[in-house]
Design goal:
Blueprint lengths: L3 E7 L2 E7 L5 H7 L18 E4 L2 E4 L12 E3 L12 H8 L9 H14 L5 H7 L11 H12 L1 H5 L11
Parallel strand pairs: 1-5
Antiparallel strand pairs: 1-2, 3-4, 3-5
The structure holds FE2/S2 (inorganic) cluster (2 copies).
Length: 169
């Protein structure tokens, strides 16, 4: 099988992985143990596989891994700072915004993308930003409330300390 080297920064760490040219980013990330990247529809429809590539929301099931050569990839595993949750993660906990949790990594990363570029979004802007991540438990209201709360209290959230929840494969 033909292979190639992939040099990429994942969650702040430089990585060198051997991949096949046709490998999808979703498959490579999960193969490397990043199980917070969820395998859902594999058609670009559910958003479960959402990651940020150079700060942009990407459905990793639709992107060849080779395309992220030299890029920075952020998955849910890279969001907490040691034992300190990202403000959005804390707000999801506070608001009970996860049910089974399958969609939660994608929702939180979509929210991070939004708050990074628009720290004070409206309710409608939050809903629009998260519309690409489907929740099969149909929990949409609490995630929106959580993102709005994270936007309202950045200073408080930045000082919170709590261990991140484990992300099941
Ligand atoms: S698994 Fe990628 S969008 Fe559904
Ligand atoms: S919390 Fe179950 S899929 Fe959204």
């Amino acid at each position: 099988m033909k292979t190639m080297e992939l040099r990429v920064t994942v969650n702040g760490q430089p990585r060198e992985w051997v991949i096949a040219p046709g490998d999808l980013l979703l498959d490579v990330l999960r193969r490397e143990g990043l199980f917070g990247v969820k395998r859902g529809c594999e058609k670009g429809e559910c958003g479960s596989c959402t990651v940020l590539v150079d700060g942009q929301v990407v459905n990793s099931c639709l992107m060849f891994a080779a395309k992220v050569e030299g890029c920075e990839v952020l998955t849910i595993e890279g969001l907490a700072d040691g034992g300190r949750l990202d403000p959005i993660q804390g707000a999801f906990l506070d608001h009970g915004a996860a049910q089974c949790g399958f969609c939660t990594p994608g929702m939180i990363l979509a929210a991070k993308w939004l708050l990074d570029k628009n720290p004070h979004p409206s309710d409608a802007e939050v809903r629009e930003a998260m519309a690409g991540v489907l929740c099969r438990c149909t929990g949409y209201i609490k995630p929106v409330e959580a993102v709005l709360a994270a936007a309202r209290q950045p200073a408080k959230r930045a000082t919170r300390k709590r261990r991140p929840a484990e992300v099941a494969p």
